[in-house]
Design brief:
heterotrimer, A mainly alpha (319), B alpha/beta (444), C mainly alpha (324), B: 444 residues, alpha/beta, 6-stranded mixed β-sheet, 18 helices, 40% helix, globular, C: 324 residues, mainly alpha, 76% helix, 0% strand
Chain lengths: 319, 444, 324
């Protein structure tokens, strides 16, 4: 059914933009409902996080015995839990160190895959070679290899190296302590590549072909076109994929704990689950710890929302 | 406020965590039952036997976290100081999975503290057997029952670390004495006193099997306690799958456990709440006189609300699970085993230290803990319940058996057994049905 | 943590970034040399080399290994052909996992996209649109582990006394008995899905809302003048114009749903009939030590994405044709 078929006598085309009174009432009414529904959804989506934030500020005994909404009848707040989880020297606290780890892991964990993906996406969209599309499809499909299944082979590549029989192709990496973070960077880069290449490829394909052609006629090489023409044009996409990868790395639970060198290199999200202690008795610390873990990505996300959306759209709407 | 901390505050504030900057005082460390390393264990002369390993690192991986981890690290801090070994301890809430990834990925820790002997046996090929020195220390320190669980195919790999006494029933001593109830020593007495309490209008039992992803395990302990008291031979056959899980004797034992656990006249709040009541809090109604008894291991002593007096003359205490057969004295136990993946000299020295009386005595005094090491004085334990537990665990006349669900394969002990217990207390399946299900899940 | 620990970490960061810059410069130099000789195959290999190296080591090899492992037994010592696959389709728990996964990959993408679209339409052009959008968008920045903790405070249950979970408190306020939500099969599956929907709706809203702004107002105005009702305009004008954005959202959420592991791990551990493929794969391979079954689950996971890959292939073909 197309729009134009619907012009029976009852729904006579309106001659002007003037509405009848009934129409306006109906519109106002439906707009009221629309407002109500919008507000309802916004509230439903915010309440759980608000509950966590309120819980994180309550004293331990309160968290254990009553629901967070009780603060409205009997307000009782403390920063002790934050203090404990951030600075305590006990194994159940000291998140400040994990926070530093997360920062150190995240920066290269975002830059490396985005740069590599940009290069690959350029080759896949603007350099002619045989098997280009097959390669692209293969990379797209790699998105779904569950990273859990890649943990053991990749870890073994780092810790044992690569050898065929007695012939060593790559020796063991022999990293220890803080330096194992290098392995975490590489692992994050690997796992982030397929999605980044997919999105950037979608974006780059849409660049105007005549601009490329003009540059090529001017005698620019591929690497020059990439640097001077393509990169400036895809900056919003790079930003949005960077944010995507940032969220993924910051929020990662498995990679950091697998490829890091133990307690000293654990990122924030990986320790969240262990915060509650051997018998799960310290769960009252979880709200504060979780809030520390989510506040940075939330802020980054809100501040950079615009870039995120712009890049994502340009890359995806045409897909 | 030290310079370091000030710097950290700065770092925190600049990393967009302004909220943290408002709270940069020294956090108060919780101190319930917390002790110190005994003087003897602070003297470096006592560590000379282990050698000197300046600059070497030993990584230890375990499932122990939080306060317990702190206390354990404290107990070996003088070992590190005096021998120069740096011990990097890492505690994980996903021990089984992390262990698998690391060992298969060629990144095994030097030493792992296995809470399940069954899991440890999976890694036998990668483990380093106990040296003669470690074996000697182990033989001196533990009873044969214990060492059997650290032995794979006749070779000793791992002496124990901590030991938990699991066959305990928590109760309120004052509630019992005021109402003239006797602490039962046989199963029949236990049922008799339960009936009496029920007749007096109080629910005799509390129960709670909820434990997040591991929901159901407290129920497996119940069944294990019963099977163990039917006979240690039966228990061993059952744990090692020499008889099927749905053997009539086992089904009968489950039904016997059910005479308490699934008895509507006994369970506070009703049987249908068991699977959803967290085990950590399930015993609290004892404090309010709402129920009389709660079956839970010795470590439950640390889980009572902060102002509870846990002592024989206090608010709550525990007695040993009653025996079925006259003259038996059995205890269901849990604990960790100290196994090594590295054969470095520093690792060997650390293994010797962890098997020594020096370490066990020190750890006993750094916080609530219990051990089966014969060399310690149980009275050094920091809380009355741990004194009692250590007494029982180090008593050679007590027959100990390890938690069967930790010996069975993971598909059973950490999966179908839990599920079965839940279905059983929820009333969706009876003892025979869950036993059949669990038997079917046993890996071929 | 002291200053040396800080310098060690940030020092590593600086060294790492510097090393990366050197590698990039070297690659750029090689690419430049190759471009001058006008050999596009060589240029392409230089551009693709880092990505392909990483993918080969970190994803292709593990994928092949997983595929092979799925034909072996638990510890990988014995070839058992299709026994693992037979197990998946005969074992009750495994079947339950498949059923759950099927529900997840249908319900979550559909619900997330639909809710996102409705919400985007509702707030389109409304005052405070950015705030509305931000509020729903927030959960996207939260980790699955964090989200699980947040939702525990919604679903938590206590048999007696004060409720800690909001949902049960609401029940108590209206005079009903609290329910043990997460243990309650099959409802618990849907409650876990709610958590993922909660996360993904923001993504859908933002993408679709931006797509809506791209629909030319003239078309809508023309339809309105023709007397089309708002519902007709929505279905016949708006939805077709943003069709491709809707597909992208649905596919992205679909893949995220298929890979979902953390929420189930953190909230129920896959017990009480809530297991899904990605979690069961992990459980089998790592916690229960059965590599073969875990690998089989992974292969099934991969198989479920084949339709999406085919769709993508056709898309590319179409674009190629259009480009010609």
């Amino acid at each position: 059914m197309s729009v134009k078929t619907d012009s029976g006598p009852e729904a006579a085309p309106r001659p002007s933009l003037a509405e009848s009174r009934g129409d306006r009432l109906r519109r106002m009414f439906s707009s009221r409902i629309a407002s109500a529904v919008a507000v309802l959804i916004a509230a439903l989506w915010t309440i759980p996080t608000a509950g966590l934030f309120i819980s994180s500020l309550r004293p331990e005994d309160d968290i254990r015995t009553t629901g967070w909404w009780n603060v409205f009848s009997e307000p009782n707040f403390t920063l002790d839990t934050y203090n404990y989880v951030l600075y305590s020297t006990s194994a159940g606290g000291g998140l400040i160190r994990n926070l530093v780890n997360t920062v150190v892991i995240t920066i290269p964990g975002v830059i490396i895959p985005v740069v590599f993906a940009a290069m690959a996406a350029y080759a896949l969209s603007w350099i002619d070679f045989k098997g280009r599309n097959t390669l692209y499809i293969a990379i797209f499909a790699l998105q779904v290899v569950p990273i859990q299944m890649a943990l053991i082979p990749l870890l073994s590549f780092f810790s044992k190296g690569l050898a065929i029989g007695d012939f060593t192709i790559v020796p063991a990496w022999q990293l220890d302590g803080v330096n194992t973070i290098v392995q975490v960077w590489i692992a994050h880069s690997i796992f982030g590549l397929p999605l980044a290449i997919f999105l950037l490829h979608n974006f780059m394909r849409e660049l105007p072909g005549d601009v490329m052609e003009a540059a090529r006629i001017d005698g620019a090489s591929h690497s020059q076109i990439f640097r001077k023409v393509v990169l400036p044009l895809v900056t919003p996409a790079l930003a949005s994929i960077g944010i995507f990868q940032f969220l993924w790395v910051w929020n990662d639970f498995l990679v950091g704990r697998t490829f890091g060198g133990g307690e000293a290199t654990r990122p924030l999200t990986a320790v969240l689950g262990d915060m509650a202690g051997t018998w799960g008795f310290g769960w009252t610390r979880l709200p504060a710890a979780a809030f520390i873990a989510i506040i940075v990505p939330l802020l980054v996300f809100l501040l950079l929302q615009r870039y995120f959306v712009r890049g994502l759209l340009a890359g995806s709407v045409k897909g | 406020m030290s310079n370091t901390r000030r710097l950290m505050c700065l770092a925190a504030a600049t990393s967009a965590l302004a909220i943290a900057a408002t709270a940069c005082g020294a956090p108060e460390e919780e101190g319930e039952g917390r002790g110190e390393v005994p003087d003897a264990a602070q003297d470096c002369a006592n560590y000379e036997q282990f050698g000197s390993f300046e600059g070497e690192t030993v990584s230890i991986f375990g499932s122990i976290r939080d306060t317990e981890a702190d206390e354990m690290v404290e107990a070996w801090s003088y070992f590190e100081e005096c021998t120069g070994v740096t011990i990097e301890y890492e505690g994980s809430g996903e021990f089984e999975a992390d262990m698998k990834v690391r060992v298969d990925g060629g990144n095994a820790p030097s030493i792992a503290l296995f809470p399940q002997p069954g899991l440890m046996a999976n890694y036998a090929d990668s483990l380093v057997p106990a040296s003669d020195e470690v074996s000697a220390l182990a033989t001196e320190g533990w009873s044969e029952d214990w060492l059997n669980y650290g032995t794979i195919d006749g070779t000793l790999y791992a002496p124990p670390n901590s030991a938990n006494a699991k066959s305990f029933i928590w109760y309120s001593p004052s509630f019992f004495s005021e109402n003239g109830y006797e602490v039962p020593t046989t199963w029949d007495d236990l049922i008799a006193v339960s009936d009496q309490i029920a007749a007096d209008g109080v629910m005799p039992w509390c129960a709670g099997f909820e434990s997040g992803g591991a929901t159901g395990w407290p129920g497996t302990d119940w069944i294990e306690d019963i099977v163990l008291r039917e006979g240690t031979d039966l228990y061993d056959q059952w744990a090692n799958h020499e008889i099927p899980f749905n053997d009539p004797q086992i089904v009968a034992a489950i039904e016997k456990a059910g005479s308490v656990v699934t008895n509507e006249d006994y369970i506070y709040n009703g049987v249908d709440t068991i699977s959803s009541t967290p085990f950590q809090e399930a015993g609290y109604p004892i404090l309010d006189g709402n129920c009389a008894m709660y079956r839970m291991a010795s470590f439950y002593g640390a889980m009572w609300p902060a102002d509870t007096n846990v002592a024989e003359d206090g608010d709550v205490f525990a007695f040993q699970f009653p025996e079925q057969n006259e003259g038996d004295n059995t205890m269901l136990v849990g604990g960790e085993f100290v196994a090594a993946f590295s054969d470095s000299e520093a690792t060997e020295a650390t293994r010797q230290f962890l098997a020594s009386e020096l370490y066990h005595n020190a750890r006993l005094q750094t916080g609530p803990w219990s051990t089966a090491h014969q060399g310690v004085d149980p009275n050094n334990a920091t809380t009355p319940i741990n004194v009692l537990a250590t007494q029982i665990l180090t008593d050679p006349s007590v027959t100990v058996r390890f938690d069967a669900s930790d010996i069975m394969p993971g598909e059973v002990g950490a999966s179908s057994f839990w599920t079965g217990v839940i279905q059983w207390v929820d009333g969706s399946k009876d003892a025979q049905e869950i036993a059949d299900d669990i038997e079917n899940s046993w890996p071929q | 943590m002291d200053i040396s620990a800080l310098t060690a970490r940030f020092g590593l960061l600086a060294v790492g970034l510097a090393a990366f810059a050197v590698v990039m410069l070297a690659l750029y130099g090689i690419a430049e040399l190759a471009s001058r000789r006008n050999r596009s195959r060589l240029v392409a290999s230089v551009f693709l080399f880092p990505a392909l190296l990483f993918l080969g080591v970190g994803l292709v090899y593990p994928a092949v290994r997983t595929f092979v492992m799925s034909f072996f037994n638990g510890d990988g010592t014995q070839f058992i052909a299709f026994d693992n696959y037979a197990w998946v389709f005969s074992d009750d728990d495994a079947l339950q996992t498949l059923v759950n996964t099927a529900l997840w990959i249908v319900i979550v993408p559909a619900l997330s996209t639909a809710l996102g679209l409705v919400y985007a339409v509702l707030i389109d052009g409304r005052r405070g649109e950015r705030v509305y959008k931000a509020l729903v968008f927030l959960p996207m920045g939260i980790s699955f582990v964090g989200a699980s903790i947040i939702w525990k405070f919604v679903y938590q249950y206590k048999a007696s006394g004060d409720q800690l979970g909001l949902l049960n408190q609401l029940l108590v306020w209206v005079g009903l008995d609290p329910v043990n939500w997460l243990n309650n099969f099959p409802t618990n599956n849907f409650l876990l899905m709610v958590v993922l929907v909660w996360i993904e709706v923001g993504f859908a809203t933002v993408v679709l809302s931006a797509a809506l702004k791209g629909v030319p107002t003239e078309i809508i105005e023309a339809a309105r003048i023709d007397g089309a009702s708002p519902a007709q305009i929505f279905w016949n004008v708006t939805v077709p114009s943003i069709r491709s954005a809707i597909v992208v959202v649905a596919v992205t959420v679909f893949i995220a749903t298929l890979k979902l592991f953390d929420i189930v791990r953190a909230m129920t551990g896959g017990h009480h009939g809530t297991d899904v493929l990605a979690h069961n794969m992990w459980d089998q391979a790592f916690r229960l030590g059965n590599d073969g079954r875990g690998a089989t689950m992974a292969v099934l996971l991969f198989a479920l994405v084949i339709p999406v890959v085919i769709y993508q292939v056709r898309n590319i073909r179409r674009q190629e044709l259009e480009a010609r």
